[in-house]
Amino acid sequence: MTDGDTALTNLLGLPRPALEAFVAQLGSKPFRARQLMNWMYKRGASSFEDMTDLAKDFRARLGAVAQVRPPEIVATQNSADGTTKWLLRADARQAFEMVFIPEADRGTLCISSQVGCALDCSFCATAQQGFNRNLSTAEIVGQVWLACRELERLAVADGAADSGGGDERHVTNVVLMGMGEPLANFRNVVPALSILLDDFGFDLSRRRVTLSTSGLVPQIYKLAQESNVALAVSLHAPDDALRNELVPINRKHPIAELLQACWHYLDEQNGRSVTFEYVMLDGVNDSPAQARALARLLKGHPAKVNLIPFNPFPGTRYRRSPLPVIQRFRDELLQRGVLATIRRTRGDDIDAACGQLAGRVIDRTTARLGSKTFGVAVQP
Ligand code: SAH
């Protein structure tokens, strides 16, 4: 559980049971773990010295072996619409991104799970970068911790001035929709989810944490046993031939299998519905006939479709569907009883919109899905 270039254990990577074991090893009582979490997550402390209700010698022992260390900020960019994007250090030469999206009724933090991505979806900027490594649990949790601190700091700097046009400037929702495929980093993502939900952690309700996957079917079954966060699935096509092209993992796990896994997840976790993301690509997947085919797949199931206007990036061969086409597509779904919404594009002036996160990635995949074999980046 050590992290990065230091031998100190980063406590942001330890869910409560692991933290209890850690403090027990230091000769302390398990309830000290809850006190520590209270300082780290409720009060935002990172220095053990500040944790004044912990015994002095315990603080000294902690300081010798542990730290609370969020990722380091390389750069911050602010969009005209209030969205903020942070470039975060993965190592000396690489970086990943997170984005905060303020809205009237919620503040959504979009976090990354990997440096790059190996899934090779043809319309996604992250895919163009290739894959380098999984983020650690501490790096995943550390994004949320850091964003909370940064937003507090900015609020203080702005004083009473209302900089966000009345929008929510706290993290109320977290979505794993940044760089990477979260289910390909299962072992680090699941403990991070538990810290997000823990009453002594970020205390977020399960409906306010969303994991988005391109469709790693076996890992969806596994997730159903280990977590109960909201599930979003990047569907993007109503048939296998087209989905094979857009989301190459579909060649391994076709649509019918993927949908079975989704309904299983809801059954197991007593979930309300699965959100299906559908990127609107001009002339590719946006016809009324394709909307009707999508409606046939989802009708009668607890599903919501979120239509995402394509966000372009340098070198892409796709174009965004015109708004009337997107609206017609939505209406075809609604008329057939399938819930559908159009995602508002946010932060595109700073390349912070869906699918535009590129960070800095040194590609070390020798085998990419679509070209050669798959599996290099998927951790059991
Ligand atoms: N790997 C996960 C998490 C990424 S979530 C997944 O695939 O679900 C990011 C969402 O934005 C996904 O639905 C993804 O398919 C979508 N997306 C990717 N590139 C996009 C682009 N250029 N424009 C709009 N949406 C895009």
Topology:
Blueprint: E1 9-10, H1 16-25, H2 31-42, H3 56-65, E2 66-67, E3 73-78, E4 84-91, E5 94-102, E6 107-110, E7 114-116, H4 125-129, E8 131-134, H5 137-157, E9 173-176, H6 186-197, E10 209-213, H7 217-226, E11 230-234, H8 240-246, H9 255-269, E12 274-280, H10 288-298, E13 303-309, H11 323-335, E14 339-342
Parallel strand pairs: 1-2, 6-9, 9-10, 10-11, 11-12, 12-13, 13-14
Antiparallel strand pairs: 3-4, 4-5, 5-6, 7-8
Helix pairs in contact: 1-2, 5-6, 7-9, 10-11
Structure in words:
By secondary structure, the protein is α/β, with parallel strands linked by helices. The chain folds into two domains: 59 residues, DNA polymerase, domain 1; 279 residues, Aldolase class I (TIM Barrel, Alpha-Beta Barrel), CATH 3.20.20.70. The protein has eleven helices and 14 strands. It has a ten-stranded mixed sheet with strand order 3-4-5-6-9-10-11-12-13-14. A two-stranded parallel sheet has the order 1-2. Strands 7-8 form a two-stranded antiparallel sheet. Strand 5 and strand 6 form a beta hairpin. The N terminus and C terminus are likely disordered. The site of S-adenosyl-L-homocysteine has 16 residues, from strand 10 and strand 12.
